[in-house]
Amino acid sequence: MSELQLKEVREVVRKARASSAPGPSGTSYKVYKYCPKLLLRLWYILRVFWRRGRIPDQWRVAEGVWIPKEENSTQLDQFRIISLLCVEAKVFFSAVSKRLCTYLAENTYIDTSVQKGGISGMPGCLEHTINIMSQAGVETSSLIITAISG
After folding, report:
1. Which sequence spans correspond to the domains of the chain?
2. Cα 94 from Cα 114, distance rounded (Å)
3. Cα angle 132-127-102, degrees, rounded to a multiple of 5
4. What is the rounded (10 degree) CA torsion for 108, 112, 117, 122?
5. Alpha-carbon torsion 106, 112, 117, 120, what sign?
């Protein structure tokens, strides 16, 4: 595969939420969204990692943060944990993931007759649920949806 293109990196940053919490590096997406010269620098750095075929050790570490599920949470089961990764790593992996998914889809490595949640442009759980709900509304029948998370 060829090196990451600036337009790929730019697209990932453009689509990212500016309010997303920064990871261990402390850098937010805002830096790259509003500072084109820094985005260009990031692209140069990402290309170096691409060529070397190795990512920094810091990108392999997530920072765990406890988020309260409800106001005035005091018990551990009233919190959920989220993992914060470096924004730079998320940009790199998002661009690579998009490329990989595009390649797999274009070369028919993905069986489109089954559900493919998480692959952009292909129906996943949300799309299937909306279609089922829509059909149930048309047919005025009862609908029970159960979500099983792994």
Report:
1. 6-109, 114-144
2. 23
3. 150
4. 80
5. positive
Contact between 23 and 84 under an 8 Å Cβ cutoff? The reply is yes
27 CB-contact burial (10 Å; exposed 0-12 / middle 13-18 / buried 19+): middle
Alpha helices in 55-124 (DSSP H): 87-106
The one-letter code for the residue type at 29 is Y
Cα angle: 41, vertex 65, 31; to 5 degrees: 20
User: How far apart, in whole angstroms, are the C-alpha atoms of residue 66 and residue 63?
Assistant: 10
Q: How far is it, in rounded angstroms, from Cα 26 to Cα 64?
A: 14
Type of residue found at 34: Y
Token digits of residue 72? 């005035």
Contact status, residue 45 vs residue 82, Cβ threshold 8 Å = no
* pLDDT tens per residue across all 150 residues of the chain: 789 999 999 999 999 998 888 888 889 999 999 999 999 999 999 999 999 999 999 998 888 989 999 888 888 889 999 889 999 999 999 999 899 888 887 887 776 666 566 667 666 666 667 776 777 766 666 666 666 554
